[in-house]
Design goal:
By secondary structure, the protein is mainly alpha-helical. The chain contains five helices and two strands; from the N terminus they run αβααβαα. The chain has helices at 13-16, 29-40, 45-55, 73-79, 81-102; strands at residues 19-22, 56-59. The protein has a two-stranded parallel sheet. Helix 2 (29-40) crosses helix 5 and helix 4 (73-79) packs across helix 5. The protein starts with 12 loop residues before the first helix and ends in a 7-residue tail after the last helix. The model has no long low-confidence stretch (mean pLDDT 89).
Length: 109
């Protein structure tokens, strides 16, 4: 039989795939899944984002600041520039939603 994989319909992906992100270690899974769906599979942003948000779940086990990883933007920009573009776009959309809800309250933005 053929070893080629035909992926043309992602509608059932959230029913078949669950990605559990525990703490900050696997946080890059979100932009990586978006990159794959956008750049390799050719999906549009809205469909890719819906799939990603339905497949990924996040659990934080600690609120201690030293347990939360932080990476310099310059490092991500150098090593993973496409991921950084996706992260910036996710942030932009999130901030637009916050602005819709709270207006120009810069304390909340």
């Amino acid at each position: 039989g053929s070893r080629e994989v035909a992926r043309s319909n992602f509608d059932q992906m959230p029913e078949k795939v669950a990605i559990q992100l525990n703490d900050t270690h696997p946080a890059l899974a979100v932009p990586e899944l978006m990159r794959i769906l956008l750049d390799e599979e050719g999906l549009g942003w809205d469909q890719a984002w819906t799939i990603t948000t339905q497949c990924c779940a996040y659990t934080n086990h600690t609120i201690l600041p030293e347990a939360l990883e932080r990476w310099p933007v310059s490092m991500i920009e150098e090593l993973l520039p496409r991921h950084l573009e996706i992260i910036y776009h996710i942030n932009h959309i999130h901030m637009e939603q916050v602005k819709e809800k709270y207006g120009d309250d810069f304390e909340k933005l």
